[in-house]
Design goal:
- The chain is mainly alpha-helical.
- The chain is built from nine helices and four strands, in the order ααββααββααααα.
- The protein has one domain.
- Helix 2 crosses helix 5 and helix 2 runs parallel beside helix 6.
- The longest helix has 19 residues.
Length: 187
């Protein structure tokens, strides 16, 4: 399998708009199924789940963008929600976040259950796989596992392109073509 992450950029269209409500429920779902739920493992599970979902179904689960941070890819919007819960954001009074989960140091502590109606069957499938990939894995191993070619192709603290993540898929040519126009018959 050719996994060269350096591909010609395309104009990606489709459902890639960040959905903060769905992101909150994804954080809750992962935190509830990943014990202990430290924020690093939660964010990595979301990356692995989103990467799988993009490769199989042509979209991210909640439309986030990934930043190539020092310790690996981080979903920007989900991380912002965690920062709100930690009191490290200008949006300190976001009741939706504070009612959903809190932070105990680096541990994500759900206050409510995730709304499973927020997810498609494929969302849950990939979230479960992302959780499984992160369960009982030490920090250094998660870090190494997440440092894939899409992360390597991006400067530190820059956004990773959807195309670089898609280029890791076994069907990368078809996926990149789909991302250029996910609705080719719509005029």
């Amino acid at each position: 399998m050719d996994t060269d992450a350096s591909v010609t950029p395309v104009t990606a269209r489709g459902p890639f708009t960040f959905d903060p409500q769905k992101a909150i429920h994804a954080i809750l779902y992962v935190a509830d199924h990943l014990k202990p739920a430290n924020m690093y493992a939660v964010l990595k599970a979301l990356y692995f789940a989103d990467k799988r979902h993009l490769h199989r179904y042509g979209r991210f689960i909640f439309g986030d963008r990934y930043v190539a941070m020092r310790h690996g890819p981080v979903p920007s919007g989900a991380y912002d929600l965690i920062k709100i819960a930690r009191g490290e954001s200008p949006l300190l009074h976001c009741l939706e976040v504070h009612n959903a989960f809190t932070m105990d140091g680096y541990q994500v502590v759900p206050s409510v259950d995730a709304d499973l109606d927020a997810f498609s069957e494929s969302d849950v499938e990939c979230l479960d796989e992302g959780i499984k990939e992160c369960r009982d894995i030490p920090f250094w191993k998660l870090k190494d596992r997440s440092h894939d070619q899409a992360w390597e192709a991006t400067d530190e603290n820059d956004f990773m392109t959807i195309e670089s993540i898609a280029a890791l898929a076994p069907n990368k040519e078809d996926l990149l073509e789909y991302l250029q126009d996910p609705h080719p018959d719509a005029a």
